Amino acid sequence: MSVLIDPPAWPGPRGLLWSHLVSDSSVEELHAFAERLGVPARAFDRDHYDVPETVYERAVSLGAQPVSSRELLARLIASGLRRRKIRR
């Protein structure tokens, strides 16, 4: 399993800091992990889940590998699973 999570550093709703949860092997693996973690499907955004700081430790205990935001993005791009937002 290669699910990655970066540190909760992104300001978001409810005054919480947020992390990104990704897989560097398959989107199916990512969805299955998010379901086990209890993250709702609505938190999925193109190629990652946004998860609040309140679930960070649980994600790591379930097997998510903590990495820097830079490493997370590099591994997501290298996997070919990166889905960039289309700018209009």
Quick rundown:
This protein is an alpha+beta fold and 88 residues long. The chain has helices at residues 27-37, 56-61, 69-79, and strands spanning 3-5, 10-11, 17-23, 44-45, 48-52, 65-66.
Poorly predicted ranges? none
Gyration radius over CA? 12 Å
> How much is the average pLDDT?
93
SSE sequence, one letter per element? EEEHEEHEH
- Major pleated sheet: 6 strands, mixed
Structural class: alpha+beta
* Termini separation: 35 Å
Count of separate DSSP helical elements: 3
Number of E-type strands: 6
Proportion of residues in extended strands: 15-25%
The percentage helix is 25-40%
| General shape | globular
Protein name: DUF4031 domain-containing protein
Pfam families: DUF4031 (PF13223)
Organism: Streptosporangium algeriense
Domain DUF4031: 3-78
Please give a structural write-up.
- By secondary structure, the protein is an alpha+beta fold.
- 32% of the residues lie in helices and 24% in strands.
- Strands 1, 2, 3, 4, 5 and 6 form a six-stranded mixed sheet that branches.
- Strand 4 (44-45) and strand 5 (48-52) form a beta hairpin.
- It is globular.
- The termini are far apart.
- The model has no long low-confidence stretch (mean pLDDT 93).
Keywords:
DUF4031 domain-containing protein, 6-stranded mixed beta sheet, single chain, alpha+beta, DUF4031, 3 helices, 88 residues
